[in-house]
Structures are given as C-alpha cells and as structure tokens.
Amino acid sequence: MRRLLAILLIVFEFRGEKFFAQGSYTIQPVEVGLNIPVRFAFAPDSTGRTFYLELQTGNVKVIKGTVAQNGTWLHVDVATQGERGLLGIAFDPDFSNNRYVYVYYTAPFTTPRNRVERYTEVNFRADTSSRLLLYEQSVATPCGVYTNHNSGALVFGTDRKLYISVGENFCSQLAEDLSDPRGKILRIEPNVPSPNNAVTTNPFYDDGDPTTGYDDRIFAFGLRNSFGMTLNSFDSTIYATENGPDCNDEVNRILVGDDYGWRPECQTGPTHCSCAQDSPYKPPLWQITPTIAPTGIVVYHGTFYPELDGKILFVDYNFGSLRAGTLTPAKDSLNVTIISQPGLGSLFDIVEGTDGYIYFSYASGISRLNPLSTGVANGNSPSTFFLRQNYPNPFNNSTVIEYEIPQESYVRIAVYDGIGKLITTLVDQHQPAGVYRIQFDAKSLSSGVYFYTIKAGSFTDTKQLQLIK
Fold first, then answer.
1. Residues 418, 451: Cα–Cα separation, whole Å
2. Do 356 and 396 reside in the same domain of the chain?
3. pLDDT digits over 399-445, tens only?
4. Structurally, how many domains does the chain consist of?
5. pLDDT of 343-386, one tens digit each?
6. Separation of alpha carbons 250 and 228, rounded Å
7. Boundary-marking domain end, from 370, 401, 433
8. Do 318 and 429 sit in the same domain of this protein?
9. What is the DSSP string of 294-347?
10. Rounded distance, CA 42 to CA 58, Å?
11. Domain housing 71
C-alpha cells in the first residue's frame, strides 16, 4: 500500500441502491459516507453487524445492527502518519461465547508502536478494562524510523492460534533476522499476554522469550509488507498478499518455517525483481510487475458465485481491481484474471459475508459484488428438483433460498409461520429449467421458527428457517 494518505484525499461516494454494471457482475453499494474503512468484518453471531476500522481516527465502528448496537464500538489513540493507524481486526473462533475481538493498530508514543490487543464485548461495546496486550513492537529500526510497512492482518488458523502479519517497517534487513518480529508472520496463543505467548511448536521456538535468541513467535519470514492475509478453512492453508518495491507484488501460500526471500539486496539493483524468488527462497504463487499494491484477500467458498468457488480473490490499492486466482493442480502457482474494476478508486479489503456474498471496501464505503445473474445461478440445467436449506440459518432480517428445477415448471414458493399461516409468497410463476436463488426479507417479522415450501409440478418440499433478532 503506497502513498496512502495522498490518494485517500479523493473520496468516491454513491447513494441509494443503484447498480453499476461491470461485465457480467454488478456492483451494489451497501454502505456509503464511511471514513476510510481500511478493514471490515462481519460479526459471527446472529446480530447481522458489520464491524469496520477507520484508518486514521482510531474508531472501530459497527453498522447494520440495531440502533443500540451501531456506533463506535471502540476508540484507541492512533498514530496517523503514512501507513500507520488502525489496521487489523479479527473475531475469536468462540466469539459467540467469549465475545473476544482482536485489533491491530499503531499507538502514538514518542516513537510509535504497533500493537495487537484483545477486548471483550459487553453490551455491544468493547469493555476497555478488559484490554489484554498480545503484541507490541516499536517502529524504530536499524534503518531509522519510517511510517510505512506496518502490515496488520489478523487471522485465526484452524489450530485456533492467532496469526499476525508484521511489516519490516521499511528496513529490509529485518525480514531475514530471526531475532526480530518484523517482516514476519507470527503465531501466538490468543489468551496469553505479551511477550511470552509464542506457540511452542513454532519453527524457531527456543526458550519462550522473544527477546533472547530467536523470536519464538515467528511462523514464516522474509516478507516485506503482507497487508492482506486469509485462511482457507477447507485445507487449513493461509494465503497472504505481498507488496514488492517497484516490481513483483505477490500472492503467497504461507507455510510453516518458510523463507520468502525479502532482504536488502532485493531493494535495488539489476536483479532485484527476481531476488526474493531465487532459490532457496520460497517462490510466490503469483507475481505482477509493475506493482499494483495488493491489499485484501479471501478464499471464496459458496454457492452464489459458482464460477468463483475455491478461488483466491484479492483486491488492489493502485488500480482498484478485483482479481480471482485459480490454483494449478500442483498448487504451486495461480492463474489470475481481473473479474471487476468497479471504478471506486483504491480498494482495501475483501470479505465473504455471513450471507455468502462477496463484499469489498474503498475510501468512503463498502460495496457488494453481485452474482453473474439476478435470478438463475448458472446456465446448466439440473437433473432433479431440489430445495436447498436457506443460508444463513439462523438469520437476522434476510436470508437466501436456492432451488433447482430440471424442466420448465409452474413454481410456487411460500413462507408460513409455526401454525401454518401464510406469511408471504416469494415465487408464483412459470420458470424455465435452472438453478435459482431468491432473497427472503423478514425485517417486519418477529423472531421465531418459520417454514418455506416449494411446489413445482408434482414436486413438493418444505424446510424450516429460524429468524433471530
């Protein structure tokens, strides 16, 4: 991410529910008028809330919940020069029970420090008295004090450990230094305070004290500024974006103990563009020159975009593009294509929502990538009638119902309450063969158990859905 604050002076804003055509996709604004939502995440509970980070104000804010839930969830004082600020957020895997939320930010001391802290949510706000410091590092380096390359992505692995991407603070010699946490992916115990919270199975664990010998928290090293990081829960693999100097921005598969090659000789010189990838260093899955400054990244698994299922999606800061990468059979490289250029300026983050849609953030808002078509999921005719379980379920306010019909049929889909009273009819028409998805809006209904039924030709089926507000 480069020249961040200068470019962020350009603000793009859309109002209402207008759709913007982008090839086969449309872009739908869902939140506008925001203040640099550099990261965002969906609360993994039934509240339907969206958390987002205001880069420069230090505010963690909530939208899409009830009036009582919305607003500033947490404020921390942040340093705002260059790429500093509020930079990362993650929910604990057991958030529904323990209410833990983790944030990464640059604290404004005389010499600023990057921090990771854990907070407990109480009454829909962060309880500041619950603050637990999990990581802290001054930005001062042997190269001087610079404002960029702070990284800040937070991801929980399937091992329930917290992974942290830490930039080398524009000091390339630190990336290969196993006694320093910068230029690394760290792995820590999320419930143990700093500094002695290294996972004992980390590849360079020696004495549990990160200030002597190796830094025991290091999981992988040799990185410059991996601003984006994500977990593919299907195979427990972590992927990260990487910002190169003037060439070779990358997408990397992060494996335990691997060295991704960033070091001083890669900064300049005639061979610096291939330097970080030369043997014995870990080559990237994908690289591009000139640089695009890739930011957010996610692995999509869902039914709304069947053409994107299993692909690695990422966005970039310089050109504002959404890209999709397909792993080769050997899983050692990516074939990448641009799937959308929304025209919203720099893009920061990309997330698969709890509703199964793809969302991304830009300087003043959050938008949704809408599927290839508004009704039929794909052009292939199914072989049988089928009614899928709604997603998500339980749900808050809205949910999606998908169904398949193998031949032209008169289709009726209706929703009933628990005593069989008709609530609404969602579909009542002839439809050609295909796979369909519809959205059920239940904002006017009270919490409870409801049923939806399909009748298509001689086929009937009923499933239960649960509304929680």
1. 7
2. no
3. 888 888 998 899 999 999 988 999 999 998 888 888 787 888 898 99
4. 2
5. 999 999 999 998 889 999 999 999 999 886 534 444 456 778 98
6. 11
7. 370
8. no
9. EEEEEE--SSS-GGGTT-EEEEESSS--EEEEEE-TTSS-EEEEEEE--SSS-E
10. 19
11. 4-370
